Amino acid sequence: MKAIVNVFLKEGVLDPQGKAVHHALTSLGFNDVKDVRVGKQIILELTATDKSKAEAEVREMCETLLANTVIEDYTIEIA
Amino acid sequence: MKAIVNVFLKEGVLDPQGKAVHHALTSLGFNDVKDVRVGKQIILELTATDKSKAEAEVREMCETLLANTVIEDYTIEIA
To answer: Is residue A42 within 8 Å of residue B38, measured between CB atoms?
Structure first.
């Protein structure tokens, strides 16, 4: 079973990496970009076969390791 | 218009960040993780209103800046 976790900075938290990418895109002539945010995508290959059990476990992984929940939000997708 | 770009290492390319996360998860007792891959998710806010034009532009951004196409693949999602 495959789990896709997207980790991204919360609204209002400054994103310097996104700002840098935005600046670089503008320098290259891509002028119709209004905003850029950069996050992480973590793809986990699990041995679990039960979808809801897998989701609960991945949620625990996010809370303990994958995301810094003070400044980051995350979404979990089980495929 | 919003574009979501996922950039991830090609199959077969070593992913040390993923390996480190996998190791950390195992140390924390998450033993049913088989593999971890870590990629980037870039969310672009565009002023363009035409979907196919926006996608073509984002593809060009990926080819020139957002992805290193020698070792990385990417997907584009226009929302």
So the answer is: yes
Of B33, B37, B42, the CB nearest to A38: B42
pLDDT per position as a tens digit, A9-64: 999 999 999 999 999 999 999 999 999 999 999 999 999 999 999 999 999 999 99
Question: Does ipTM exceed 0.95?
Answer: no
Task: Find, in chain A, the residue whose alpha carbon is nearest to that of B56.
Answer: A30
Is the CB of A30 less than 8 angstroms away from the CB of B57?
yes
Query: Count of domains in chain B?
Result: 1
Q: What is the pLDDT of residues B47-78, one digit of tens each?
A: 999 999 999 999 999 999 999 999 999 999 99
Range of the domain at B71: 2-78
Distance CA A55, CA B45 (A): 30
Residue B79 has pLDDT above 90, yes or no: no
Over its C-alpha atoms, chain A yields an Rg (Å, rounded) of: 16
* CATH number reported for the structural domain that contains residue B57 in this entry: 3.30.1280.10
Q: What is the DSSP letter of B30?
A: -
How many Cβ pairs within 8 Å bridge chains A and B?
A: 90
Identify the closest residue of chain A to B38 by CA–CA distance: A42
